[in-house]
Amino acid sequence: MKTHNLHSWNLSPERARAIQKNLRAWVVTEGDCPPPAMVGRISIAVGKEAQQPTSLQACVTIHSFPQLQLLERKVALKSSRFPRQAGLLSFRTVPAIIAALSKLNRVPDLFVCDGRGITGPDTFGVASHVGLVTNIPTIGVRPIKPSRVPAGLGPDRGSWVQVLDQGQLAAAVRLVTGADPLLVSPAHRVGLTAAVARLLDIIPAGLSVCKYSQAVFPEAGHNASQPVSLRLIKGAAGR
Q1: H or E element that contains 197
Q2: CATH number of the domain at 13-234, out of 3.30.2170.10, 3.40.50.10490, 3.40.800.20, 3.40.50.720?
Q3: What is the pLDDT of residues 146-189, one digit of tens each?
């Protein structure tokens, strides 16, 4: 799969903020999203933050829709020296995502990506960065802290409440009855209502909480007794 080379990744935080402000103007967060024939799921796992460079593992899976059959899975491991700074996470993680995307033989009609969409008037999150480099409709998903779950959110599947999260219009969505909700945000070429509706289509009704967690956070190691530990393999950073 080809991606758009929007800018250099060898950047200072100051330069990254300036580029991000310009890229923000190209993000589209409105409109419908037709039922996809294939759905891409992008997840990211980060190694120990104290290590320099930091290792990042990106995983991209492609599923057929509505059958949800796994068609393809690609993983890339890269290192990053870009500092951890609020609002600039995509400049650390997206290079690894691009490396995984470049290995794909298929091009999905929709991406569901770990991270935020729009996060303010001049910034955007990982999911919006992915939407721009792929020019494919993209939905951002991330967990919600229990203290920030809206009081009006019901316990049943399909319940959702519009929230304003740090300047970002998003929604707290209950995708599985009894499971923790997700913060869902339009990242690129899709509106909020359409993003919520499409995720409810992608996550089957009746899914167990365990399988739901594995589907939503495939690289989080939910069944592991210890957190996921990444090790940068010699030569992998250049792939």
Answers
A1: helix 192-202
A2: 3.30.2170.10
A3: 888 988 999 999 999 998 756 667 899 999 998 999 999 999 99
